[in-house]
Amino acid sequence: MNSREEVTHSKFHRKALQVKEAQSRIIEYAKVLDTEEVPLYQSPGRYLAEPVYAPHPFPAFNRSGMDGYALIAADTEVMNEGDLIWLDIVDNIPCGAVPAVDIRRGTAARIMTGAQVPQGADTVVMLEATESREVDGLLQVGIRKLHKAGRNVTPIGFELREGELVLPAGRMIKAGDIAVLAAFGIPFVKVIRRPKVGIFATGTELLEVHEPLVPGKIRNSNSPMLEALVRESGGDPVMLGAIVDDIELARSKVQMALESYDLVITTGGVSVGDYDIMGDLIRENSGDMLFNKVTMRPGSVTTAAVRGGTLLLALSGNPGACFVGFHLFARPVILQMQGAVQPFLPEWTAVLGAEYSKVNNYTRFVRSRLEIHEGRLYAYPVSIDESSVMVTIKDSDCLIVVPPEERGLSAGDSVKVLKLPGEIRGLESMAGS
Ligand SMILES: Nc1nc2c(c(=O)[nH]1)N[C@H]1C(S)=C(S)[C@@H](COP(=O)(O)OP(=O)(O)OC[C@H]3O[C@@H](n4cnc5c(N)ncnc54)[C@H](O)[C@@H]3O)O[C@H]1N2
Ligand code: MOO
Ligand SMILES: [Mg+2]
């Protein structure tokens, strides 16, 4: 067999891996990147590099939950229902002040919501439940009802005890985490650096977005889609344009990208066609190839390699396959590089909203819309879900996982879905219905 025949032969005979096996092969090379400090306001969406323990109890003092009077509950026990007892007002405590006087039996302090409850007091009676009077120039508060100790007082450390773990490492920072960090006086947050992801497309047919359409050509829609997906995953995309189907060009571009970025994603040219140069290029160094076939649809031709320690993910050019391949392989890598605790798409269970009769010898990942009816989650396959179809990507909330052995699925069947990131589009279409 001459070398030309060998190339042709290896092009067609690919060893297909199961999705999980392919995922674990690449995730092994997704090492957590180094850390950096970012201002608190820039930290949403970033992943915490180290756990945060409460540096002090929170709240740091016994906090009043009402505008009213801080007093000793036992002072209200002695009375008969309806009687008034009068306590001397010895202090007035706004928020931000330290109480000047301890509360003793027979006394009370006027206090505002959020202010520090004075020593001795164990309850706060709301303003509306009190009366007031002045006796010989001395202000007094009148209480009519029995009040329990602890009422309207949030004790020190009620939310968090000092030293308690609040935010584990690997957590994606959201608004609630920001509140915790701000409350604990952390103006700069240690997060994992964003992975730099080089993206380029191959295909002689590809035009730039701004170029006018000409016969036979199409605009490169995968690269901008991948750019958005990388950004959505917390990565820092670097657009390297599109190249014509020329293996020399592709080789130098791949080399440059692998030397410059944490991850390289390409789209196009991984099947068996005459101009499918990315597949050929990766097979040249078969030693560093991780896989070039996965038992999935779309995206069966998804190919991955590791060169000089850097991952190269060659996604299919077919837009549907490119999209699915990104979510199953690129996104977990980008998340894992940021130290995310759970890099894979979450698995949910839904009710299949409509019959799905297509069967396959490979697992299908069917782009689908999610809706909620009477509190139950339904997944509806998009109208057209072929690998080559671009337009229904925008309508997808999840991917229904259709195992290869199914004989087709009926409406009402329970299905496993992989939830795609972001808001649920199906809920928008339900609005007003
Ligand atoms: N004889 C066979 N043909 C094909 C097979 C096969 O097993 N045997 N597999 C099919 C499957 S499955 C897929 S998926 C595609 C994979 O194609 P490639 O990854 O090689 O991608 P291309 O050939 O470059 O392009 C396919 C399709 O996608 C369009 N495309 C490419 N790049 C972009 C882009 N950046 N933006 C938008 N659209 C893009 C391209 O014009 C083609 O229409 O192969 C099947 N064939
Ligand atoms: O790789 Mo193709 O997308 O399986 O349809
Ligand atoms: Mg091709």
UniProtKB/TrEMBL annotation:
Q: InterPro entries attached here?
A: MoaB/Mog-like_dom_sf, MoaB/Mog_dom, MoeA-like, MoeA_C_domain_IV, MoeA_C_domain_IV_sf, MoeA_linker/N, MoeA_linker/N_sf
Organism domain of life: Bacteria
Q: What pathway, per the record?
A: Cofactor biosynthesis; molybdopterin biosynthesis
Reactions catalysed, semicolon-separated, are: adenylyl-molybdopterin + molybdate = Mo-molybdopterin + AMP + H(+)
Enzyme Commission (EC) number = 2.10.1.1
Cofactor(s) required, per the database record: Mg(2+)
Q: Which residues form the MoaB/Mog domain?
A: 198-336
Keywords in alphabetical order, please. Answer: Magnesium, Metal-binding, Molybdenum, Molybdenum cofactor biosynthesis, Transferase
In terms of Pfam families, this protein maps to:
MoCF_biosynth (PF00994), MoeA_C (PF03454), MoeA_N (PF03453)
Q: Which Gene3D superfamilies match?
A: MoaB/Mog-like domain, MoeA, C-terminal, domain IV, Molybdopterin biosynthesis moea protein, domain 2, Molybdopterin biosynthesis moea protein, domain 3
- Which major enzyme category is it? transferase
Belongs to which family?
A: Belongs to the MoeA family.
Q: What this chain does, per the record?
A: Catalyzes the insertion of molybdate into adenylated molybdopterin with the concomitant release of AMP.
NCBIfam families given in the database record: Glp_gephyrin, molyb_syn
Can you say what this protein is called?
A: Molybdopterin molybdenumtransferase
Organism, as annotated = Paenibacillus helianthi
